[in-house]
Amino acid sequence: MDPSIQPHREPNFALYQKEMFLLSQKGSHPAFSTHPDKLQEEAHKSLSQGGWLYASCNAGIGWTDRANREGKWRIIPRMLRDTTARDTTIELFGHKIAAPICFAPIGINKIYHPLGELNSSKVAGELNIPYCLSTAGSQPIEEVARVNGNGPRFFQLYCPHDEELEDSLLKRAWDSGFDACIFTLDTWQLAWRHEDIAASNYAFYRGIGAEIGLSDPVFKKRIAEAGLDPNKIEDMPKIGEKWIDNVWHGKAWTWEKVPKLVKKWKELSGGRPFLLKGIQHPDDAIKAVECGCDGIVVSNHAGRQVDGAVGSLEMLPEIVEAVGDKCTILFDSGIRTGADVFKALALGAKAVCVGRLFVYGMSIAGEAGVRHVMKSLLADFDILMNCAGVNSIAEIQKPQLRECISYFRECTISVLIIP
């Protein structure tokens, strides 16, 4: 880039746009489009039926997924501001990261690509944005940490009803450099997902995805006690069932559990952050702070758990008003574009988490697919800052949005009330 046009800055994600355009000089072009709809279509072609269903299925008939993506906020661009030297960096939990975008925790990545989480963890480290590993991941905690290198990484806990196993998972995560713990609240039981159920599509029950368990000393004891042998192919479905039924499908935890977990993590990690994921109500956010949590993730599990629920972005302003000065707020669910990132930040989130986009990229082209999708999202966001007249993340504030009722909503309501 000519420095007279754009001065040097790091990171400069916008340059990825020029890199993609310059492929035309070589008679080439990007391997696939990162438009969210096109990306989803291409992933559908690449994935097995089971992989596609698990990636795309929502709770019920998908009301909550639509609510996440039916935006009522519009960006108000500002002109004639010098935005040539934009800064996308922020500090999050003591880490200076390249942009306020994190990899969301997503389980069983091996159903999207044989290397699973190793693809996304490696790319996250390269880009210096946080990677969050799910307890339901399909690669050992230690291997995910190894490929991530020195990148910031967090561990998402599905808390088992076996305290010895809980302790083992937390210790392995901390020993492997995962220095924030995110306890997910909304998945004691999988929601009713019609297409997954119609196909009996559950990888764990077919013996796929128990690698975190199979690399854990406590869980190894549990399967030995049950007379199961991971070296026997015929035992793997039962092992997968035992693993995930310990992690999910148990009785629900209550608020009584949270202070105990906070204390345990703080003592293990020397005071590192503890967050709750799945918060949708201001009162729950207040309760999280009262229990000693350092942060929350405003999330409805991307519409995969409660059908007909409120969109996460709709609740974000109320939650920020309730606890925004008392804890760090991350946002998850429905992030597809740079504009989605911008709106969540303007409404008070410190950073956002991205999920389906990167697993779709992974399913199309493995590590390269994850890299292309995430670099494209980062470039989209960086360029949007430029076009909207914003120089830094701190400048992205609520006055740059306007709340609107969409034309689609108005038309739909009109049709419904006509006799």
TrEMBL record:
Summarize where glyoxylate binds, as residue positions.
Y54, R193, H301, R304
A GO molecular function term, named singly, is: FMN binding
Q: Which PROSITE patterns match?
A: FMN_HYDROXY_ACID_DH_2
Q: Which residues belong to any copy of the FMN hydroxy acid dehydrogenase domain?
A: 28-406
Q: Write down the SUPFAM superfamilies for this protein, in alphabetical order.
A: FMN-linked oxidoreductases (SSF51395)
Q: What is this protein called?
A: L-lactate dehydrogenase
What this protein needs as a cofactor is: FMN
Q: Which organism is it from?
A: Naematelia encephala
Alphabetized, the UniProt keywords read: Flavoprotein, FMN, Oxidoreductase
Task: Respond yes or no to whether keyword Flavoprotein is given for this record.
Answer: yes
| Protein family membership | Belongs to the FMN-dependent alpha-hydroxy acid dehydrogenase family.
Catalytic residues at: H301
Superkingdom of the organism of origin: Eukaryota
Q: Where does FMN bind?
A: 105-107, 134, 156, 158, 184, 277, 299, 332-336, 355-356
